[in-house]
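Figure caption, in words: inputs first, then the predicted bound structure.
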Amino acid sequence: MARGMVRETAVTPSREYERQLVGRAQADDRLASRELVELHKDRLFSFIWRMVRNHHDAEEICQEAFLKAFASLGTFSSEYRFSTWLFTIGYRVCLNHLRRKRALTGELDFTALPHDGDSALPGSVESEEAGRLKELVWSAVDRLSAPQRATLVLFYRHELSCHEMAQVLELPVATVKSHLHRARNRLRELLESVTEHELQEFRNRAGAAG
Amino acid sequence: MRCEQARQLFDAYLDGELSGALATELGAHRVKCPDCRRALALMEVSGHVIASDREPVALHGDFADRLLACTDSKSLRSRDRLRRGLYIAGLLAAAAVVALAFLGAFDRPAKFAGEKVETARPLAVPSPQEQSPEAGNRGASANEDLLEEWFKETQDNWAAKRQSGESLQRQFELTISQMLDILRQAKDTSPGADHFPGADGEVPASPPEPAPTDDEDVEDL
Ligand SMILES: [Zn+2]
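Bound structure (zinc ion present):
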């Protein structure tokens, strides 16, 4: 099972500590605000970058999401995880950004855009097969609708449950499950060209690495 | 188990929610059926890549600094605006005082009747006939009548102006007190909170309410 294999660098704080941090940030404690930013910025940026696929836009959206969150910290209820709330704001800003972008360019075809950071990482040791497979997977992900892409990234990469995804995407749980289902099937179709050899090679390496 | 049944279990299996007899049956089908085997393998591999592939990009190292500086400058701007608001309120108050003093000065036009008549002359433009030498006397008395009329009009005018001046004063006082109230409130609320006109609409009140299924709108984004 692929899920759960990646670990984010930031350690998720306990609910109680998070509640204290938010409370201090509400009282304009700069240190608490900074800690909230440091704790969540990389995860939020990673999600947003996967949604918009442009470093500059992703950084701006990330900043806007934090600023909006801080500006309305008073409405945050500690029943919810701060990260879930922050992701909800970030996803909304992403959607607005994508809508604006589509209104400007007429369509959104990520596969036609030059991607920053798509080349193989320097120093990464992976077979040609594994490299091609990763490339195929990500370019297939790029061709999905925004909610489908979001569910895949949130589920596999950020390990959110369907219930948490429903909060972030502000959709009913059943709709989220349907997005995830359609996203998987669409990926399967888009990966038709993957050979049995590539699959086997990748699984061997992943098995060896994990 | 047929392929159709097997496929219905894919999601539960991939979500890690399939167990017991169904999991065993699906496992058995997978071994026998190359199509389902490949389909599951493709979805598993995709999940693995999405979960574990290293992110090729990262935020700039000074992101937090820039973000916090941004919130600082926003609250600074808010304080500036408060200061500017108080300054404008002061100016308005001063203007009100000057305006009232000015209105007060014209409270007694009768006292300076002579001067008023002098300065009023250009206003009572004589007609060409009145300017002709033959009509000199008639013209002079007509002029006097006109001036008399003008003078009365002016007095009435000023009386009216003084009244409206008083109501203006009341309005000024009201506006200034309202403004001071607003500024006092602005001072009390957290700085920066008013910088996002769209924030109300865009920041979810927590808990975020699940929206109705209108995903068609974003489906093709
Ligand atoms: Zn089958």
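Chain B is about 70% helix and 0% strand.
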